[in-house]
Structures are given as structure tokens and as C-alpha cells.
Design a protein that fits this description.
single chain, alpha+beta, 161 residues, 6 strands, 2 helices
Length: 161
């Protein structure tokens, strides 16, 4: 017996709807994913960067018995440019292999700030200038805070005692 009043979808119709849904999902992921995931990845890298610097500063303190000389009392960029605090010459390579850099605003370069040439050299190499994009300050309670001011979720800070 053959029924003609059956209701439902054919296999071809189901496959077509599934394929359309997958295509729409893929398009949505392309337009939604990069910004939020890239920002979260940048903040994770910032957190790792200031944690590595904090560990190097803490090791310096534990070995020497004092914080690096001349730490500023206000948040100051970690760089060897004018107005910055040159942390590199104090902790590289004895306590960290090289400086950590903010993924968007940090860089090592040669030349000058107006015409920088990216450099793969360590921050303590001859002719290499650097600007980490991070900040450092010595607090009144004799602790030191490292800051990643460009974090998307608000400034990231690590305080070491």
C-alpha cells in the first residue's frame, strides 16, 4: 500500500538546511570572532609580560636585597627613551632573558623614535632602543607595581613585595 498523505522533509531538504546553517555560522564567526578573541589574546600576553618582568624584578630583589636603583614613585614607562625607566640594564640577562613587550604598543628598534627600524636584538644590545608599553612604580609601602595600561579590560597590575 502506498500512502500519499505523508508529511516530512526529504533527505535532500534536510542537507540543504544544514549546509545553509553551517555557512551562516561560518560567516558570523568571521565577523564576530577576531575582535573579541584578539583582544583577549592581547590581554593574556600583557598579563604574561608583566608577570615575567615582575618575576625578574623580584629575583633581583631577592638576590641583591634591594629594588633596582632609581625606581620612580609614579607610574613611568619601562623604556630606555627619554623620560622612561631603563629596567633592561638592571635585569637583562641576569634575571630575564629579554624584556617583555605590550603586543600593540611595545617594540625594540634601532634608529630614532621618528624613524624606527624594528630590531630583533635584545634590549641590552648596542644601538637598540626599546619601549615596552608597560609601566613601573615604587609604592610608598616599599612594594613595586608593574602595569599594563593598554589592557582592554582596564589596566592590569601586579604588585610585588
Amino acid at each position: 500500500m502506498k500512502r500519499t498523505d505523508e508529511r516530512g522533509f526529504t533527505a535532500l531538504e534536510l542537507v540543504a538546511v544544514i549546509v545553509a546553517c553551517v555557512i551562516l555560522l561560518a560567516v558570523a564567526m568571521v565577523f564576530v570572532r577576531p575582535k573579541s578573541f584578539d583582544q583577549a589574546n592581547d590581554d593574556a600576553n600583557r598579563r604574561l609580560g608583566i608577570a615575567a618582568l615582575a618575576q625578574g624584578v623580584k629575583q633581583y630583589h631577592d638576590e641583591i636585597g634591594a629594588w633596582p636603583e632609581g625606581l620612580p614613585g609614579t607610574a613611568t614607562e619601562i623604556s630606555n627613551n627619554e623620560g622612561g625607566y631603563d629596567l633592561c640594564r638592571r635585569i637583562v640577562p641576569g634575571y630575564v632573558r629579554d624584556m617583555a613587550f605590550d603586543p600593540q604598543f611595545g617594540a625594540a628598534y634601532t634608529g630614532d623614535a621618528e624613524n624606527p627600524i624594528p630590531s630583533a636584538g635584545a634590549c641590552d644590545a648596542d644601538g637598540v632602543l626599546y619601549s615596552t608599553g608597560f609601566q613601573i612604580r615604587k609604592n610608598q609601602d616599599d612594594s613595586v607595581t608593574l602595569i599594563a595600561p593598554a589592557a582592554v579590560t582596564g589596566a592590569l597590575e601586579i604588585t610585588i613585595r
